[in-house]
Design a protein that fits this description.
By secondary structure, this protein is mostly helical. The protein contains six helices and three strands; from the N terminus they run ααβααβαβα.
Length: 159
């Protein structure tokens, strides 16, 4: 099966949402711990990168090495299930279009995300169309102002 005609995760997501979220919108996947939220989000982000779109994977309280290993595992599983033969090319395509940043101190703030996006644009000519945020928010503690700030940022950057 080729990547162009496969039933990839992002295609399914876009179909369910009748076109996807669109630029400047945020989506949330919420479920109990251990139900595969991370797999779904990472699959969507990888699929987005496979389509040639720049993607940013942000993680809170995770090491970059651990996030990369997890992403690589999800990519390998996707390629297995899709029967992809040219794995090196596909992995290279993902690598070219995907950046990983982490907040090891556990303090994710929208202002820090803004700083990361500005840095990537200015110094790496990298402007993600999709930002995956792993490990935030804690819905028991997050304020509506923080979610509103994230929504404003998404609209400003059209991510």
């Amino acid at each position: 099966m080729s990547l162009s005609d496969s039933n990839r995760p992002l295609r399914v997501f876009e179909k369910v949402l009748q076109g996807g979220l669109g630029a400047g919108n945020i989506g949330v996947i919420a479920a109990r711990m251990g139900t595969g939220k991370g797999d779904v989000l990472t699959s969507i982000a990888i699929d987005h990168a496979l389509g040639g779109h720049q993607t940013l994977h942000m993680a809170v309280n995770e090491r970059v090495e651990d996030v990369r290993a997890y992403d690589d595992e999800v990519l390998q599983t996707m390629m297995d299930r899709l029967g992809i033969e040219d794995r090196a090319r596909v992995a290279t395509d993902v690598e070219r279009n995907k950046q990983i940043y982490t907040f090891m101190d556990g303090k994710f703030e929208v202002s820090r995300l803004r700083g990361t996006l500005d840095f990537l644009k200015e110094h790496a000519q990298f402007e993600p169309h999709l930002v995956e945020i792993q490990g935030w928010p804690d819905f028991h503690e997050v304020s509506s102002e923080e979610i509103g700030a994230l929504k404003t940022l998404a609209a400003e950057y059209k991510t």
